[in-house]
Amino acid sequence: MTLIFKPAETYRDDFSFRNSPAAIARFPFPFPEDAYMYSVNIEPAVSRDPGSVFEHSFDVDEHYLSEMAERARVLERDPERCLVMPHMAQAAWDLLEMLMEHLAGDYPQHFLLERNGTAWRWQNLAMGIDQSFTFGDADSLPCEPLEYITRQMQGDFALLDQRDGDLFMDAGMVTCPADWSLRFDAGMSFKQWHSPVPMANQMGIFERALKFLLNIQVGHPVRRLNWTLTINPRLDTSPETFHEWGSDRGSVTPDNVGSLVHLRVELQHMARLPRSNAVLFSIRTYLISMEELVSNPAWGRRLHRVLRDLPDAIADYKGMTRYRQTLVDWLRQFDPEA
Amino acid sequence: MSALDARVGETRLITPVIREVSLMPVNGTLPAFSAGSHVQLHLPNGKRNAYSLLSDPGDTSHYRIAVRQQAQSRGGSRYVHEQLQTGDQLKISSPANLFPLHSTARLHVLIAAGIGITPFLAYCTELLRRGAAFELHYAYRAGLSDAYVEVLREQLGEHLHLYESSARRLDLGQLLGHRPLGTHVYACGPQSLLDALREQSLALGWPAARVHWEAFAAPEPGVPFVVELARSGRQVAVGAEQSLLEALESAGVELPNLCRGGVCGQCRTPYLKGDVEHRDLFLAHEERASSLMPCVSRGCGSPILLDI
C-alpha cells in the first residue's frame, strides 16, 4: 500500500483532523464481542494483514506529519513531557536503534538508515531530516536520543526499567496520553502506576500482566489493544492540560454527538530492548469520530451494545459518565435489533 | 522459540579444561545483548545447554562463550571440547538475561569462582564503559580455572581482587561487611559459594533484593525413565544422559524455557502422579507435589503422568 501523508490537520483549536475512507477501513476496531471486560488480551506482535495497523511493529499512517507537528507544539509548551532518568540513557539508544531499523526497513521510500560501525546516517525524507551522528554519543545529535527519535514517530513511548522483579516507569515521551502523566508516574512500579484502574487489580490482571512482561524476550514482542473515548479529535488529553479539555465532556448534545465523540484506540506494543534489558511500552493512538465509525454498520451496532452494557466503574474511569446516555441513545439507531 | 543461525569461529583451549568459542553470524550481525545474558547452544547431538555471553555486549559482530569440561558431562561440554570445529553451523537461541546488572546500584561487588567468571567479563566491559563503581573478586585455581586472570589484570587495574586458591582465601564475611548503602553484590560459581553468600549476607543484614546470584545451571545425568502425557496418552522415554525437557523436545513437544538448569521457572510443568526426583532451585516445597521442572528433574520410581 502506498503511504500518502495528508496535508496538515490539527488536533486542537479548530480540530480539522479527519480520517480518509482508507484510514477508516484500517481503523483497529477493538471489540471482538458485543460486551467488554478486562482481559490480558496480549498476542505475539507478528506481522499480519498487509495494509493493516498490524503489518508493521511501528505503524506510520496518513496523519504522520500532522501528528509530528502536534508533538512539537506540545513539547514547546511543556518540554517535560519527555523524560529520561540517567540510568535509562542506554535504553534510549536501544529505542533509537529499534525505531530507525523498523522505519527504514518497513518504509524505505520515506526513511533511510546507513550504518558503518558507530557512524550512522539517518534520513527522514517525510520531515526533511538528514542527520549523521555517532551511535552512543548523545552530543552528536541535536537533542537527547529518545527525544530525537520520538519527535519523528507517531504514538507515545515509555521505557520501563526491569529490576527487583518489577518494572519502573523511568523514561519516555508522552504527548498524546489518554489522561495519564509521565511526570506523575515517573519512577513508579507497574502496580503503582496502574492503581487508578478499577476492578482489574482485584481480578489479578496486573499480577499476570506483570509476570508476562517480565519474561518478554528479545525478538519476541507482543501487542494488545486498549480503548477509551475522547471529545474532539484531541491527542493531548493529559492531566497537565485537563483545564483545557475536561469541560468538553459537558458539551455533548444529541445534535453534535456524532462529530464530537471519538473512539480512541491504543495499539500497545511491548518489546525487550536488547542492550539495556529494559522493556519498551509504546502506545500508538488512533482516533475515529462516531460519524466515521458508523460508516461500518457492524461497528456501529457492536459499539452500541458495548457502551450500553459497560460496568459503571469502567465507564467512570474512562471519563464518559456525563455523556454516556446521550451517546448510547444516538448509537441505538445503528443497532436494528435493539 | 525462534533460533538464530551461527557459525563457529575461532575456538581455543585457554586452560586444560576451558575452551573458548566464538560464534559468528551466518549473515549480517547478531542481536545486541545486555551484560549477564546467555544463549542456548543447540548441539548436533541434540543437547541444548545455556552459556553466558562473555564478549563485549555492544559488539554485534560475534559472541564468545567459554565452556568448562565437566567430569559428569552428559555430552554437551564434551561435544564442545572434542567435536565442535571452526566453521560448523549450529542454531543458538536469542540472548536472554536472567542475571542483569541492577540499574540503580551505586556500587557493584562481583564475586566469581572458577568458570563463574564468564558473565562478569561482559559485566566488566559494561561497567567500565559506564564509568560505574565496581569491584571484581575472582577466586580460581592456577593452571586450571585462571583463564582470564591476565586479561582482567590489564583491563581492570585496581577494580580486580584475585584469590588464587592455594594462596588466599575469599572471605565473604569480610567482603560483605561495612558496605555503603546502594551496594549490590552478584555471585556466580559453584553451589557452595552461593550458599555461603546467602548465609553471610543474611547474617550481615543485607536486603535480599541487593544479593544476586547465578548458579551453574545444567542438568545432570541419571537413570533412564519413562513419562506419559495425559492429554495424548503418548509415552516418552528419557535416556540416562538426556533431560526430560530434551526428551520431550525430541518427541516434538516444545515447552517454553530459558535457563535449562532448574533456575528460571519457565518450563514448569504440572504432573498428576508419579515419583519425581526434584533437582531444581525454583519450586517451593508445596509446589513440588504437582509441578516439576523437566529441564533438570527426573523420574525415580512409579511412572510420571504429565498433565500436558
Automatic annotation (TrEMBL), chain A:
Superkingdom in the source lineage: Bacteria
A Pfam family hit: HODM_asu-like
InterPro entries per UniProt: HODM_asu-like (IPR021848)
Protein name per UniProt: DUF3445 domain-containing protein
Source lineage: Bacteria, Pseudomonadati, Pseudomonadota, Gammaproteobacteria, Pseudomonadales
From TrEMBL, chain B:
CDD domains cross-referenced by the UniProt entry: fer2, PDR_like
Domain of life: Bacteria
GO molecular function, one term: oxidoreductase activity
Cofactor section: FMN
2Fe-2S ferredoxin-type domain boundaries: 221-308
Residue stretches spanning the membrane: none
Keywords associated with the record: 2Fe-2S, Flavoprotein, FMN, Iron, Iron-sulfur, Metal-binding, Oxidoreductase
Domain FAD-binding FR-type: 1-102
Protein name stated in the entry: Ferredoxin-NADP reductase
Native organism taxonomy: Bacteria, Pseudomonadati, Pseudomonadota, Gammaproteobacteria, Pseudomonadales
